[in-house]
Amino acid sequence: MTADPRTLVIVAHPDLSGSSRVNRRWARELAAHPDEFVVRDLYALYPSGTLGEKDAEAERAFLAAHGTIVFQFPVYWYSAPALLRTWTDEVYGLGWAYGGEAAEPGEPGRMLAGKRFAVAMCAGDIEANYRREGTVGFTPAEVIIPFRATANYVGATCVAEPFTLFGTEGALTDDELEASAAAYLAWLRDLRA
Predict the structure, then answer these.
(1) pTM of model > 0.90
(2) How many domains does the chain have?
(3) Which residue, of 47, 76, 103, 166, has the greatest Cβ tally within 10 A?
(4) What is the pLDDT of residues 35-92, one digit of tens each?
(5) 8 A C-beta contact, residue 96 and residue 58
């Protein structure tokens, strides 16, 4: 049973306080609602790009305490930034997240079973290219298949359609950015419904 009803948001942007415009705005929106969201900024927490065993244990405690976990990041070569992969490798350990097929959800080896995962991402490219006939050739739901497969493997579920903001390397206006923050907040709230 989860102890914290808030949504846990794992933010992975290598320069959230600098070059990031979208993820920084989204994180600021979440911070304005601490009664609804817990935000973990991976690059601020682990600037060396590595996690030790104590770090992994701390992250596991956050995951164990929340029922809904959202991974927020910019799309980098149709994947997530490197630290999110490192985080996954270190945190989803054998005997904690998997390897306990006979265990009940919430027990060692199945600690993520029954959790709900989702992905929120921004893409520099335009939406038209994230179609089968576009230059990317894949939809956002297809781009996040590794997240969905991982969720399946650890006994969690993953929302198939990610929240996606396209065209972030183009002329994204301030009004469009504000609208995306409001839409993101609504999408997150709908996840709990």
Answers:
(1) yes
(2) 1
(3) 166
(4) 999 999 999 999 999 999 999 999 999 999 999 999 999 999 999 999 999 999 999 9
(5) no
Side chain identity, residue 56: A
Q: Which domain holds residue 127?
A: 7-192
Residues 6+ apart with CB under 8 A from 5: 67
β-strand partners of 69: 8, 117
Q: Measured in Å, how far apart are the chain's first and last C-alpha atoms?
A: 18
Task: Round the CA-based radius of gyration of the chain to a whole number and report it.
Answer: 16
Residues 6+ apart with CB under 8 A from 146: 79
Question: Per residue, what are the HEC states of 170-182?
Answer: CCCCHHHHHHHHH
2 domain-assigned = no
Q: What is the DSSP letter of 68?
A: E
Phi and psi based region of residue 49 (left: phi greater than 0; alpha: psi -120 to 50; beta: remaining): left
Q: With left for phi above 0 and alpha for psi between -120 and 50, is residue 6 left, alpha or beta?
A: beta
Which CATH number is 79's domain given? 3.40.50.360
Task: Enumerate residues 6+ apart whose C-beta is below 8 A from 187.
Answer: 120, 163
In the chain, % helix, strand, coil (3-state, to 5) comes to 40, 20, 45
Residue 140 lies in a domain: yes
Distant-in-sequence, close-in-space partners of 78: CB < 8 Å, separation ≥ 6? 136, 138, 143
